[in-house]
Amino acid sequence: MTSKGEFFQMAVRLKAICFIILVWNIIVLDVIEGFGSSGRANSIAEISIAKALEKQRLRALQPQKKESLGFKPEEYWLNKKGCPIGTVPIRRMTKKQQQRAKYASLSLANESLPGSIKDFAGISIVPPPQIGRFLGASATMTLYNPHVNGPGQYSAASIYLERGVERTQAGWIVDNGQITGCYNTICPGYVHTSGEVPIDYAFPKVSFPMFDNYEVGIRIYLDEDYWLQLWFETDVGFWPFNIFKELKNAANIAGYGWEVFTPAGEMVSPQMGNGQFLAGLQRSTCHMRQVVYEGDVQEFPPDPSIVTTHQSRCYYEGSENNALDDYWVYNFIFGGEGNCTVPPI
């Protein structure tokens, strides 16, 4: 049974509870130390959490917008507003579920499981000489519900920042009702700060071809730590700066696109996007728009000279275009019906 698309960061869908953020912070930071970070990691992360809590407090004092383009607490929470300030939503996990998540973690990481196949269709970019590095990446992506087949398969849209072997990645994912990947609050290092938006939020509505009304904006940016932002208005959590080695120098690759995963022994690969690829038809094919990267002082749409396109087996990418407007900006499409028969190159 295919689940609807849900948000992930690099999804576990179980009962949510509100957990005191400072207590959870201790658990996370114990893991962070295992990355070989310095003794300053704890204090740095605590400062970031304090700043996030202050933002929440000030936000609660401000008049609420009549309508937000993003997450609507009344659609998710019984109390219509989420966890109290100073607490965050955490999913309960059984020991069996944790064991399954450890296995599935390998598929979302850049480690290969023998006989399994990961396909990617999208774009990657390198910084132009005048920029030299990436301090952020963002895109707006349509929400669909692609069909996945056997246990452990997933189909996911995401953006990422990368340098060397280190990567921060966020997007939305459809899996086969299974726990797929080291993502969300079980990931080493990630600190969730939003008491309103659960990191594994299941989107209540998805798009259909020609009616792509539902989408999500995702941004990863460096501001002392690597922050994760939804709908370009809500910071939901961060990766502490000191858990990284190479990404301390910012990213030298930014990626945007879709990946699907087929475990070893499964012959039918999942759909990508909305299950079809129609060149030149953005409204009928899953797409990303408002694709931009961030330098030291401003953001830019990619220039074709720094873009590398990627396709794999029966999954395609195309129709790259900088529309030079505020709605589409730089955009491209991707997709595929799945059931690939050709072996990976």
Question: Quick summary of this structure?
Answer:
With 345 residues, the chain is α+β, with helices and mostly antiparallel strands. The protein is built from 3 helices and 17 strands. Strands 5, 8, 9, 10, 11, 13, 14, 16 and 17 form a 9-stranded antiparallel beta sheet that branches.
Notes on the structure:
The chain has 345 residues and is an alpha+beta fold. The protein has one domain (6-335). It has helices spanning 21-33, 41-61, 95-108, and strands at 6-9, 16-20, 87-91, 117-125, 136-142, 154-163, 166-175, 191-192, 215-223, 225-230, 234-239, 253-262, 287-294, 299-300, 307-310, 316-322, 330-335. The strands form three sheets. Strands 5, 8, 9, 10, 11, 13, 14, 16 and 17 form a nine-stranded antiparallel sheet that branches. The protein has a six-stranded antiparallel sheet with strand order 1-7-6-12-4-15, with no helix packed on it. The chain is globular.
SSE-based structural type: alpha+beta
Q: Outline the low-pLDDT stretches.
A: 11-41, 178-182
**DSSP helix count?**
3
Distance between the termini: 30 Å
Share of β-strand residues: 25-35%
Mean pLDDT: 78
Largest sheet: 9 strands, antiparallel
Radius of gyration: 19 Å
